[in-house]
Design brief:
By secondary structure, this protein is of the alpha+beta class. It has one domain: Alpha-Beta Plaits. Helix content is about 25%, strand content about 40%. It has helices spanning about 20-30, 50-65, and strands at about 5-10, 30-35, 45-50, 70-80, 85-90.
Length: about 90
């Protein structure tokens, strides 16, 4: 059974390729979902997939790409959605 989480990452996470690197990692882990920047400086993401892959993604998000400085990660469990297909970067 798939697991889905809704994640908010704070710190220096915009302008450091966080979204692009998140997509690359999610694709490698075969996760569905999306990632986007928020106006308050955080990054928001949803990940859905196998338990081990979701856990690996959470671990990666706590560090982020090379130029990021993650201060915190807030994780909310959600029921798996039926409409997630692949992983996308949202520009909103």
């Amino acid at each position: 059974m798939d697991r889905q989480i809704h994640l908010f990452v704070s710190g220096r996470v915009q302008g450091v390729f966080y979204r692009a690197e998140t997509k690359a990692m999610a694709d490698r882990l075969k996760l569905s979902g999306w990632v986007r920047n928020l106006r308050d400086g955080r990054v928001e993401a949803v990940f859905q997939g196998e338990e081990e892959a979701v856990e690996a993604m959470i671990d990666w998000c706590r560090k982020g790409p090379a130029f990021a400085a993650v201060d915190g990660v807030e994780i909310k469990e959600e029921p798996p959605a039926d409409d997630l297909d692949g992983f996308t970067i949202r520009y909103s």
